[in-house]
Design brief:
Layout: H1 4-25, H2 40-93, H3 98-128
Helix pairs in contact: 1-2, 1-3, 2-3
Length: 130
């Protein structure tokens, strides 16, 4: 039961960071409508505003992606370390149960690594799709 806790914590962090990345990576979109007569200076300032907004969107994406993969890797590493330490402790206490403990350890490590890979996929989506 104690091996499940790091998985749940890591999954919760990945989901929260995914939503934070989605909101941080969004770029303000202006509504398209009929153009009124504008001077050349006003049109240039609008283009500069759009370019600046795009740059801040890229910066937001980079920050969100870095936080997402960094915290997911940190959570995965902590979870794996905790699982391995507990399994070694269990094998030291009951050497005859080492096969069962090792099997459950590998299954738990696979689940933890899967969550980290999902975080990597979400990070790639944040960078390239949004």
């Amino acid at each position: 039961m104690k091996l499940i806790k790091p998985i749940v914590i890591t999954l919760a962090l990945v989901i929260m960071l995914m939503f934070a990345g989605i909101f941080a990576g969004t770029v303000r979109i202006r509504a398209a409508g009929p153009q009124t007569s504008q001077t050349a200076e006003a049109a240039e300032s609008d283009e500069q505003t759009v370019e600046e907004t795009g740059d801040s969107g890229v910066a937001g994406k980079a920050i969100a992606a870095g936080l997402a993969i960094g915290l997911a890797a940190l959570g995965g590493a902590l979870g794996m370390g905790n699982a391995i330490a507990k399994s070694n402790d269990g094998i030291a206490r009951q050497p005859e149960a080492s096969d069962k403990i090792r099997t459950l350890l590998m299954l738990g490590l696979v689940f933890i690594e899967t969550v980290v890979i999902y975080a990597l996929i979400v990070t790639i989506l944040i960078i390239f799709v949004m």
